[in-house]
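Protein modeling request. Please complete all fields; requests missing the sequence field cannot be processed.
Requester role: graduate student
Desired output: 3D structure, token encoding
Chains: 1
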Amino acid sequence: MFLVIFLYMLIASTFTIGKLALQYVQPIFFISVRMLVGGSLLLGFLYFFRRSDLKIYKKNVWDFGAIVLFHIFFAFVAEFWALQYLSSSKVCLFYNLSPFISAVFSYFWFAEHMTKRKLFGLFLGFCGFIPVIVASGVSDSSSNAFWFFSWPELAMLISVVSACYGWIVVRKLGRQGYSMLAINGIGMLGGGLLAFFTSLVIEGMPAFRVISHSAMRDFFACAGYAALLILLANVVFYNLYGYLLRRYTATFLSFAGFLTPVFAALYGWLLLGESVGWSFFLTIILVFCGLFIFYQEELRQGYIVRR
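Delivered output (307 residues):
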């Protein structure tokens, strides 16, 4: 049980670390560096120790293109752009929409049956996000883009939808025998290159912001945040999650995922001075109820097997 709590303490910290890193650099450029380094490390390991895992069949070229675009590029670029304006806990909370969005994709992709209870769970989970969106604004006071959604909030929806679709493609490639290191490495390297050229077009030449009296100290702080994100998210989290799936059900780990925004709110309060109101906790309760209803129906249908 301790490892489960540690897992979500770990991933929650990446949202706060990302927020701290954006004090120094532009978001798209930061993503490009992070993914280029992370992808190079993973592919470098495979090249020297498991070179056979780098083989890609022609029939899967488009799938790897989808990994680059959706699993990495759109998911991370949209998230880190939104992270400039939203609190780290709110950005983290958006990712609790993932099970619901994945269910919609699975309905069309894998023809999984959608019952009335599952539809009610999806509806309740989606409505659960209304309180936190209505009650909290963005830091730059930008106007709403659609109804009461701001542009940063819409960017987070794009990020979550892209990530969910990306994980479906990852699941497909994994079932066909591809190594997770190869899938993630190729996605990160390709997504990092795409983010780099996008950064040059949108953000211009890379610029480093000095926020203290020492440029050298700020540079090492930013580099440290980037290295920490690569280590925690790209290396430790994925491997630990895979290990825990052998000991716990996916249902249990999904429910335990609700610890993530709670830890993110705690980190944001301690390190960034972010405040969390009643709407945040009301959203957690409503989304959890929606997930509980949905997963109980998944268990009844046999899509999830208790172990």
